[in-house]
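Lab notebook: predicted structure, single chain.

Context: the supervisor wants predicted structures on file for every construct in the current expression panel, including those that have not yet been purified. This is the next one on the list. No modifications to the sequence; it matches the entry in the shared construct table.
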Amino acid sequence: MKKRKKKEASPQLTEEHLLKVLLGARRPVGFDELENVFAPGRSIRKDLKRLLGSLVEKGRVTQLRNKRFGITKEMNLITGTLWCTRSGNGFVIPDSEGGKDIFVSSRNMGSAVHGDRVTVRLDRYFRGKPEGKIIRINERKSNIIIGFTKFYNNNLYILPEDARYNIEYCVKGTVNTDISSGRLVVAEVTAFPGEKVEPQCRISKVLGDLTSVSSIGKFIEYKHSLPRRFTRAAEEDSRAAAARTGLTGRTDLRDLKFVTIDGEHAKDFDDAVCVERTKDGFILYVAIADVSHYVHKGSSLDREAFKRGTSVYFPDRAIPMLPKVLSTGICSLNPLEDRLTVTAKLRFNSRGMITGSSFHPCVIRSAMRLTYSAVEKAVIENDKRARKKLDAVLGGLTDMAELAGLISKAREERGSIDFDLPEPEVILDIKGGVKSILRARRLFSHRIIEEFMIAANESVANLFVSKNIPALFRIHEPPEKEKLKDFERLLQGLGVGYKKTGSPRALQEVLGNVSGTNYEFIVNRVLLRSMKQARYFARNRGHYGLSSESYLHFTSPIRRYPDLVCHRVLKGILSGNGPAYSEEELAAMANHLSERERLIMEAERELEDRIRILYMKDKVGEIFDGVISHVTSFGFFVELTDVFVEGLVLLSSLEDDYYHYQEERFRIIGRRTKKSYRIGDAAKIKVVLSDVESKRLHFELA
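Prediction complete. Output recorded below exactly as produced.
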């Protein structure tokens, strides 16, 4: 007796065909109707449900209350991520590229909370800006909250420490009898807003006081749901990957004197560089760790790396994107060890203009592991002792410095904006405590590596554009006109000239004009805040800030997933195997990776802020000099001169007059005395409050 063959789903049942049917219907369509279109007379419910679920999750299709499905865009609906403000209002950042953020008032928020993926209905435009109402929560950001305990009518509640979560959660289940009000805890949400009479949670961990860098780091991990360990499958994959060989079929560059130049505490070395002088100019080799040789697309290790998106760096440790056996082991370009790379060979003329490029899978051997400070002393400061230590590679370093200067000048001439904003450098003592917080010096040796990496990234991007190949491009769109008008008003108030073209070149001229003045830091900072955030996109749209026609990330595949994707696309071209990803795959990846980048930047920034507050905890009552860095309706922020710390002077602490806020002039002014406080003014302050848990650092004028 012959076995009956199982009925297979129609070959037309794909996401793209499903979208075509929904578009062709010109109205929302029911599940049964769709099933009848694709497979009349037989059941395909399981496959159809799976595909519809995938399209709903991606935001391309929306399920209505009447159980019908429609194209999201056609119904004036937009999917995106909700970002709330302390006021209770919020903005939905669209999943679709190029869309404007949609304002959502607190009354139109429904039961959504900060970080949720939602569908919003576009209701109107107010002064040219879109406003809407949330109609569906597609995915909750996390089921973990961190907050403070509070007893009310013998019931225990959790008040989220992040004011953007404007909701109290009732604690259910067993509660430690020793717990008191005001304790900082981690809780698991058991009922989200809207699911029961009141949101509910269960306490999973009581955190200690935030009295050390380590305890603050653990707090940040929980708050932002950062991964604390790799899956067992990813660890097994990484051990197997580390054993792979691959020297055959590669260009051997082990005779060239490559060096790595990084910070003192770096342990994972993505890039090594080498420069050769020619009759017409220079040849620059930028060798990047060939992570794609070890991390295969679709493996458990690859899925884990994609989920993480990027490595996270704390002052005392790192949370790597890849297990250490790869990140600091076989993938890291450690000195005097053979390593597999994808190398960009770039030719420059004597004016620093690129004249040609090629890309090759290679094997290299780094001659030396250098630090920025060592290179600065030897090449820029001509320190004899430092030069003697680096004698074996000194000639190459001198050529690198010359080439970097030429590239930098050429990039400046085309209008690339070069921000000069110092980063905080946290100095720890031997016990892990905060010894000092300094402004990290930006050295010329930093610029050497920056210029070489930008050149390599642009060259790879130009190759993809010339072949019309989709990839994860790094795009940066021009700032909004309103933001530039605010910046212009600041410059007018400071008496700084500005050509109102809105071009990168004009903005770079402004930065050049204020360089070395008291306004340098403030102008750089306000201009940076006026800019849109760069993001990933499956097609090239240029990079405004760099004044670059095409740009992407290629040079850090150990710590950034988009760079790993770029390597796979590039190697697909070099091998002739064709595109490694479809444009649809890349578009979905771009959304996720841009979102991960935003989250991790927020986590790292919050960590820095709380560490600064911790450092000031034993300095309450002390006097410091500073500069007003930001003015708001409730006070102004002062950036200290000797310590890289910023705190708030509340309007309520100014007792000599009634002050009001003049937003258009970036100042507050006394009604009677006409005394004003504006951005850029010097200020002498006294520290009056330093509370790490509530993230408050308050000053008063001394």
